[in-house]
C-alpha cells in the first residue's frame, strides 16, 4: 500500500492542500467513486492492516492507566479476529440481512464483533446503559437474530438486563457470551470467544462480496425524548466517514489515538474507531469503561506522554475536564491537533485550549443520520471559535426555511438563521421504522433539527437546537448564548440552559451548572453574573440550580431531557407548595408515548380532596404540558 491514505487511490505521499474552496473543488474533480479504495468496512480494515501488519491495532489498558501493561493486538491479528467473528456468525446462520445485536462495554471483543458482524450481516450495537424497556424495544425493532453480550461481571448489570428481556425477542436464535468463565456459562448461551477461536481467520468462508450499498449497521438515536430510532448505515456511508475524517485529521500509519468513546455511537465506531484502524493507526483503549473510568481523566497527560498521540479528541465534556488536569511536568508536544464534537463546544473551553497548546480546537458537526461528522473546521483555514467550519469534501450543507410539512421552501441568504440540512456520501436513506421521508427537507437532504447560518465565507455556525429553544411568551430564546455566558464564570465547569414551565410565559429560561472541582457556586451570585452579561433581558435565567454531577448521555453530552424534567418538577412543586399543606405531594415528570412528557401529581392524606384537586387543576391547566392527578390512601 503506497501513499498517505490507505482508503484513497489518488493521494500520493503528500497530503492535499485544502486551504481554499478552490482547492476543495480541484480535489473534488476526481469523482469520489473513482477515488475510494474500499467498498466495505471489511475491506477498509484490510487496507489499514496491509500497511504494516505488525503494527498494533489495539492497545487495551485494563485500568486506563499509563502504568498498565496493555493487551496488544497487531493489525494482522485484529483483521484475523474480525474474519473469525464473521465466520462464526455465518456458521450460526447469519446472512446478509440478518441482525447481530451487541450489548457490550469497550472490551477488545467489541471491536471485532462490531466489524465482524458487518462482514456477515448487519450489526446493531446498543447502549447497555439504556433502561431495560428501551433496550428490549431496540432489539425487537431490529429483529435481532444473534445477541452478543457480556456475561455476569462485576461492575456491570448487562447480563441482568439480558436475562429479563431475552424471552421477549421473538426473532432471537442464539445468545453469545463474551468473557465467559469456564464452567460458568449462563444457561442456553454460547461462548463467543470459543466460537471465534475455532474459525479460520484468512478468508470469509461465506464467499460474500460486500457492496457499498449493503446495509452494514443499525445505530440507534439517543432515545432522549421517546423511543429510539434505528438509523441504517451502509458500508459506503461508513467508509466515507473513515476516509473523510482521516483526511481531515491527516492520520498517519502507526499514529496512536486515546480511545474512550463507546462503540454503540457513530463517533466511537466510525469517526475514531474505523477511521484510525483503516488508516493503519493504533487505538489505545482506555479500559472497558472508556472515559467513564475514574482513572482515565487524571491520567490523561501521563497517557499522552507515554503513547504520544498526535490528535486529542473527545466530546465537549471530556475536553472541558481535560483542562482541569494539571499539565506541568508532562511532555505533551506530540499533540498537533485538538478536535471535538457531539454537541457545541463552549467558546471559553476552545479558547483555553488555544492558549494552552497554541492549537485551535477543530470543531466537528454532524449526527448519526450522516454517519457522524459532516463538517469540520479545516486546519489550513482560519478557525473561528463557535463555527463548525465547512463540509467534508464531496458533502454539502444548506440552511433553509421549511414549511409546516418540514420541506424546504427556500435557501436562506448568508447569515440568515434557518434549518441546517446536509447531503453527501455519508447521509442515510431513512429510518428502519416510521415514515421513510420524515427526516428529509428534500430528496437526499437530511433535516438536522438544528438551527444555523452560513456566513459569506461559507462557514457554518450552529445557533441552537430547534427543540432546545426556550419559547418565552412566543419569543424564541436560543440557550447557546446564555450557556456561553455561564461558562465565563470562574467556578462553572459545565453549564446548560433549558426551559422551565410557566403558566404565563409558557417557558422561562433556567440555568443548570456543575462547579469545577473544589469550587462552590452561589446561585444568586451566578444569576447576577449572567444578568450583567446577557444582552437580551428576556434570556436572563430566572433560576440557577447547582447539580453535581451534571446528567450526561453515555457519550458525554449534557442530557437536557433530564434537566427539562427536573425543571418542570421544581416549577410544579413551587406552584403547589401552599395548596395541600396537610397532604403528602409527589411530583413526577416522565416521558409519554403520545404526549411526549406528562406531569403526574400523586397525593395522599389530608382532607377535602375535591377542593384540593380543583386548586391543583387551576394551577396546572395553563401549562402546555399535560398532567394527571392521583390520590392514594398510603
Supply the number of helical segments.
17
What percent strand? 25-35%
- Please tell me the overall pLDDT: 91
CATH class of the domain at 466-562: Alpha Beta
CATH superfamily grouping of the domain at 466-562: ANL, C-terminal domain
Secondary-structure topology with pairs:
Layout: H1 21-27, H2 32-35, H3 41-51, E1 56-60, E2 71-74, H4 75-91, E3 99-103, H5 108-120, E4 122-125, H6 132-141, E5 144-150, H7 158-165, E6 174-178, E7 190-191, H8 192-197, E8 215-220, E9 230-234, H9 235-249, E10 256-259, H10 266-278, E11 282-285, H11 300-307, E12 311-314, H12 316-322, E13 337-340, H13 347-357, E14 361-367, E15 372-376, E16 390-391, E17 396-402, E18 408-411, E19 418-423, E20 440-442, E21 445-454, E22 460-465, E23 470-472, E24 475-477, H14 479-487, E25 492-502, E26 506-515, H15 523-533, E27 543-546, H16 560-576, E28 584-592, E29 596-604, H17 609-620, E30 626-632
Parallel strand pairs: 1-11, 3-4, 3-5, 5-6, 6-7, 10-11, 12-13, 13-14, 26-27, 29-30
Antiparallel strand pairs: 1-2, 8-9, 14-15, 15-16, 17-18, 17-19, 19-21, 20-21, 21-22, 23-24, 25-26, 28-29
Amino acid at each position: 500500500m503506497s501513499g498517505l491514505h490507505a482508503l484513497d487511490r489518488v493521494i500520493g505521499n503528500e497530503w492535499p492542500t485544502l486551504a481554499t474552496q478552490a482547492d476543495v473543488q480541484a480535489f473534488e474533480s476526481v469523482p469520489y467513486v473513482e477515488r475510494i479504495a474500499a467498498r466495505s468496512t471489511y475491506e477498509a480494515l484490510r487496507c489499514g492492516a496491509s500497511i504494516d501488519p505488525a503494527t498494533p491495532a489495539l492497545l487495551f489498558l485494563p485500568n486506563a492507566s499509563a502504568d498498565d501493561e496493555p493487551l496488544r493486538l497487531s493489525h494482522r491479528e485484529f483483521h484475523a479476529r474480525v474474519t473469525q467473528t464473521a465466520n462464526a456468525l455465518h456458521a450460526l446462520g447469519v446472512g446478509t440481512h440478518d441482525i447481530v445485536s451487541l450489548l457490550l462495554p469497550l472490551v477488545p471483543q467489541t471491536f471485532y464483533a462490531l466489524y465482524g458482524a458487518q462482514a456477515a450481516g448487519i450489526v446493531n450495537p446498543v447502549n447497555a446503559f439504556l433502561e431495560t424497556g428501551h433496550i428490549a424495544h431496540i432489539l425487537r425493532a431490529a429483529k435481532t437474530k444473534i445477541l452478543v453480550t457480556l456475561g455476569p461481571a462485576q461492575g456491570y448489570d448487562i447480563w441482568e438486563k439480558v436475562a429479563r428481556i431475552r424471552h421477549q425477542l421473538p426473532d432471537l436464535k442464539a445468545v453469545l457470551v463474551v468473557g465467559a468463565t469456564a464452567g460458568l456459562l449462563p444457561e442456553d448461551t454460547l461462548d463467543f470467544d470459543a466460537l471465534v477461536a475455532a474459525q479460520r481467520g484468512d478468508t470469509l468462508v461465506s464467499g460474500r462480496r460486500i457492496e457499498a450499498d449493503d446495509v452494514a449497521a443499525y445505530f440507534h438515536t439517543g432515545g432522549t425524548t421517546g423511543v429510539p430510532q434505528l438509523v441504517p448505515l451502509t458500508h459506503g456511508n461508513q467508509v466515507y466517514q473513515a476516509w473523510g475524517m482521516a483526511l481531515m485529521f491527516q492520520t498517519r500509519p502507526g499514529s496512536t489515538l486515546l480511545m474512550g468513546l463507546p462503540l454503540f455511537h457513530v463517533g466511537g465506531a466510525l469517526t475514531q474507531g474505523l477511521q484510525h484502524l483503516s488508516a493503519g493507526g493504533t487505538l489505545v483503549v482506555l479500559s472497558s469503561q472508556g472515559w467513564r473510568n475514574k482513572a482515565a481523566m487524571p491520567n490523561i497527560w501521563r497517557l499522552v506522554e507515554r503513547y504520544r498521540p498526535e490528535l486529542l479528541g473527545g466530546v465537549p465534556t471530556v475536553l472541558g475536564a481535560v483542562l482541569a488536569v494539571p499539565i506541568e511536568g508532562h511532555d505533551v508536544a506530540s499533540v498537533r491537533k485538538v478536535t471535538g464534537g457531539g454537541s457545541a463546544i463552549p467558546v471559553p473551553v476552545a479558547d483555553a485550549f488555544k492558549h494552552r497548546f497554541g492549537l485551535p480546537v477543530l470543531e466537528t458537526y454532524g449526527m448519526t443520520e450522516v454517519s457522524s461528522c459532516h463538517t469540520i473546521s479545516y486546519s489550513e483555514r482560519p478557525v473561528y471559535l463557535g463555527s463548525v467550519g465547512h463540509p467534508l469534501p464531496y458533502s454539502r450543507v444548506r440552511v433553509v426555511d421549511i414549511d409546516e410539512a418540514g420541506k424546504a421552501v427556500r435557501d436562506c441568504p448568508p447569515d440568515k438563521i434557518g434549518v441546517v440540512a446536509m447531503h453527501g456520501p455519508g447521509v442515510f436513506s431513512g429510518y428502519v421504522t416510521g415514515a421513510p421521508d420524515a427526516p428529509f427537507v428534500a430528496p437526499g437532504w437530511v433535516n438536522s433539527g438544528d438551527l444555523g447560518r452560513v456566513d459569506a465565507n461559507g462557514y457554518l455556525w450552529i445557533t441552537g437546537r430547534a427543540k432546545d429553544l426556550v419559547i418565552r411568551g412566543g419569543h424564541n430564546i436560543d440557550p447557546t448564548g446564555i450557556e456561553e455566558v455561564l461558562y465565563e464564570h470562574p467556578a462553572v465547569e459545565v453549564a446548560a440552559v433549558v426551559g422551565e414551565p410557566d403558566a404565563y410565559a409558557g417557558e422561562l429560561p433556567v440555568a443548570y451548572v456543575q462547579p469545577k472541582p473544589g469550587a462552590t457556586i452561589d446561585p444568586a451570585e451566578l444569576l447576577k453574573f449572567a444578568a450583567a452579561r446577557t444582552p437580551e433581558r428576556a434570556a436572563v435565567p430566572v433560576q440557577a440550580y447547582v447539580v453535581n454531577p451534571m446528567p450526561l448521555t453515555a457519550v458525554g453530552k449534557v442530557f437536557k431531557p433530564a434537566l427539562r424534567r427536573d425543571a418542570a418538577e421544581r416549577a410544579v412543586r413551587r406552584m403547589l407548595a401552599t395548596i395541600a399543606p396537610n397532604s403528602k405531594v409527589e411530583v413526577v415528570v416522565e416521558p409519554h408515548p403520545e404526549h411526549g412528557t406528562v406531569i403526574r401529581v400523586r397525593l395522599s392524606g389530608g382532607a377535602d380532596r375535591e377542593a384540593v384537586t380543583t386548586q391543583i387543576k387551576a394551577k396546572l391547566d395553563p401549562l402546555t404540558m399535560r398532567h394527571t392527578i392521583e390520590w392514594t390512601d398510603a
